Every structure is written in C-alpha cells, then in structure tokens.
Amino acid sequence: MKLVLTFIFVFFFLFITGQKNDYRQVIEWAKDHSEKNPKTAIDTLLRTAESEKNKGNYLEYTEILTVLGQIYAFELNNHNLTLDILKKIDEAYQETKDKNIRVYYLLVLGYINYANKEDSKKVFEIYQKCWEICPKDHPKWIYVLINYGGALVETGKMDEGLRMTIKAYDEAKKTGDYGLCTMTSRNLGVAYSYKNMSDSAIFYYKRALQESMLSGKQEDILDAKLALAIFFYDHSQRDSALIYMNMIINEIEHFRNHESRELCYRLISKIYEDKGEFKNAYEYSLLALQYNDSAKISESTRQLLAYEFELEVKEMNKKTESEKRQMEYDREKQELIYIIVVLGLITIIIFVWIIFLRLRNKKKLLKIKAENAVLENQKIQMDLEFEERAVATKTMFLLEKDNMINKVINILSSAVEKNNELNRKVITDVIFDLRNSLNNKRWEEFEFRFNKIHPNFYTRLEKDKPNLSNNEKRLCAFLLMEMSSKEISNITGQSIHSINVARTRLRRKLGLTNSEDSISHFLSKLTGSGLAGEHSLLKEI
Q1: Closest to 487 (Cα-Cα) out of 397, 403, 407
Q2: 158-168: per-residue pLDDT in tens?
Q3: Which of 56, 116, 183, 392 would you label with 332, given CA atoms 20 to 30 Å apart?
Q4: With pLDDT > 70 as the criterion, what percentage of the chain qualifies?
Q5: In sequence order, what DSSP letters do the residues of 365-390 get, joined into one string?
Q6: Residue by residue, what is the 3-state secondary structure of 73-106?
Q7: CA distance 446 to 394
C-alpha cells in the first residue's frame, strides 16, 4: 500500500511544473533526457535558471530549480544537492517575499521529507502550512490540495483527507488536465484502500487508468496499471494482478528508470511464485536481477555524477559566497560614499544656511543702524532747530532790547536840551548808564554762537558764493534758521519790506530765481554733513 502512495508522489513531482511558458520547452527537454544524460540536462537547467534570475523572473527561476531538485533527488539520489536547491528557492523567497515561491518551496520540501521516510506528522505539518498560505489563484493550487489530502490520509485523518482529495479532483476536472485527474483518482483509490473499501478503491484506480489513457502519457498509463496490479496482489487477487502485470511487461521499456522495471519484474515473479509457476517466477526474477545490476551500475554512475556535481556546487557556492562578500563590501562602500555625500551636502547646507543667517542678520543690523542713524539725524536736526530757535529768540530779545535802549537814549538826548541843569544832569547820568548797558558786540556774540551750531557754514557759503556782502551773509544765517521776515525785521530794526527786497536780491545771487527750492533748503545743503559733531557744540549754548 505504501508503494502506491510513493508512486503517486513521484508522479506529482515529475509534473509539479505545468505552466506553458517559453522556458517550459527547456524543462520538458531536461526531464526527458535526465535519465539518459543527467549532466547535460542539469547544465541546461542551470543556465536557463540563471538566465531567468538575471531577467528578474524569480517565479520561473524557482520553477526550474524545482525540476533540478527533482533530478538531484530521483536521478542522482543526492540529498545534499536537493537541499542546496531548496536553499536557493528559500533565498529567492527571502528576496522577493513572493508567496507563490514559498508555496513551491513547501511543496518540494514536503515531498522530499516524505521520500526520505521522515515522520508523517512532519510532512503533514509542511503541507498544512502550504495549504494555509497558498492563494487559490496559484498555478499549483490543485497540487496543494492533492498533497494536503494525501498527508491527511497518511496521518489517519481519512474523512478529511477524502474531502480534500475530492475537492482537488473537482478542481482538476475544471481544467481539463487528465494528468491531474489521473493523479487525483489514484490518490482517492489509495485513500479508500486505507479505509478497506475495496469496491470504491477499484473504481478510482480504474478511473485513473481511463484518465491516463486520455492524457496519452505512456508512463502515466503504466503507473495506473501498476497501481491496479499492486492493489489486486495485496488483496490476493493474483489473476487480476497478473493481467495488469502482463500488460505492463509488454510496454515496460516506457518506464524511465531501472528501479521501476525491476519492481515490475519482482512483482510478476512473486505472483507466479504464489501461483506455483516457479519457472516463470524464476525467469522474471532473473530479469529483475538483471535490472537490479543495471540499477546498481546506474546508481554508481549517478553517485559519481552526484559527487562531481556536489564538488561543482561547493565550488560554485564558494564563488557565490566570495561574490556575495564582494557585493557586500561594494554595497557597504556605496553606503559609506552615500553617507559621506549626504553628510557633505548637509554640512554645505548648514554652512550656506549659517552664511545666509549671518548675511540676513547683518542686513537687519545694517538696516537697524541705518534707521538709528536716520533717527539720530532726525533727533540732531530737531535739536539743531530747537537750538537755532533758542539762539534766534535770545538774540532777537537782546537786539530788541538794544533797540529799545537806543530809542530811550535818543528820546532822553533830545530832552536834555529842554531841561534845566539839574534835570539835565540826571538825564545825562541815565543816558550814560543806558549806553553802558548796551552790548556793541551783540552781533559778534550772535555769530559766535551761530558758528558753534554751523561751524562750516560761512566757510562753505564764502566758497560757494564769494560775491555776497556781510549783510547778505547775515541774512543767510537768519534764513538758515528759518526765521520769518518779521522776526528778522525786529532783530535788525529794518522794515519788513526792506527784508523782503533783500531776500529777493539774495535769491538772485544764489542762482535760485528759476528754482522751486527755498533759500533755507538751499542753505541747509551747505550744512548737510557734520551734524553729529555740530550737535555736541549746541550743548555749550
């Protein structure tokens, strides 16, 4: 019974790759030639796998690796090479995180554990995990159902295993793939055999044979007949078993490996032995021994070839590890360069930002200084205007006082002649006192104070307009302080009309006849610099 299940899984593994893509021709060719020329088949598959990987076709790459695993496991019987294939499939999954690749990995891993007679519970856990993660649109969804159903049967969960396998058959029927239908029907036959339901088992075994004939694959047909022969032999139906074995013997060359042929000859020899036909039993046992010898020779050849490939794989793995280390070194180097470049850019950005902030702050500082200078100049100008007004007011008061005293002196002088000697003496004394109170240097004092406020005014005025008289220069000083004609008249004792005429004449001499500028604005240009220095002199007035 176990033998039947083994053939079912071998069949599955042989046809685990079913997508019809361009690389499928290579896969089919490799499978057809893997028995007679495994080295050529392996080399071809390795090149094709590497090509698909370089293209970024990881699903196709994994599928080709699966076929390589099949050859390593069944043609070369080399567990290490098969595990190396599984490692590469897992690496492809780790790189892509593609669940489809993970499904392939678990399918193959489960089968290898089964073929190596591992604990059936472990195999069941692998296929259960595969069934849990496999999406229903996965190309191997039916295979997942088939293998999970078989694992359930193997662990004694018959009813659940039957339901899963029937579901797999329904899905296979929808595809029209008779190879899948054959596989599923045979699994159902095995399950019913486990349940000792012989009629149901025979029904599904025969249906598997019918479907294999529809598929047209000769080895599938032989496998289906062999499954029936084994079933009838296990149930002591020697004649029925012999019928199917005779069918197989006539076409035994269609089996791809010597082990299957040896098995058939041993089984038919056993049947003839049980029937008492020892001559036939002996003849077939000799054929079995012949294929056993061929199988041993083939096994030795496979072992040598496997050893050769194992050495090549080790060398390739060393080379791959070296390349990986080099790639890791290059990657770290690139990362270091990237970090240096990023840090450099960040440093440049920070440096530029600092310069920008400094320039901005400097600009703000200059703006503040300029504003402060403007405010300072405005303050100085206001102080100057205030001091000018103060000087003008004080000077005007003093000059008006002198004018008043002069008027009183004149009045008293005219009165002296008309009074007696006593009065004349008194008036003369008063006149003397008044004349003593006059300050004849009042104008000198005014000009002294004015020069303190505008120290360069007369120099600049003389340099710019050398043809001005002293009275006109004095008028310029009054106008610079923005005094009105009336105020100037009160100070100088001249009439307002005389002042206005003098202003008109001064405007002409200054060249402002056709200009809109006022005389005071023109004169202020002469004192445009040195205001801060002049401001300090105002404190003395």
Answers
A1: 397
A2: 999 999 999 99
A3: 56
A4: 77
A5: HHHHHHHHHHHHHHHHHHHHHHHHHH
A6: HHHCCCHHHHHHHHHHHHHHHHHHCCHHHHHHHH
A7: 9
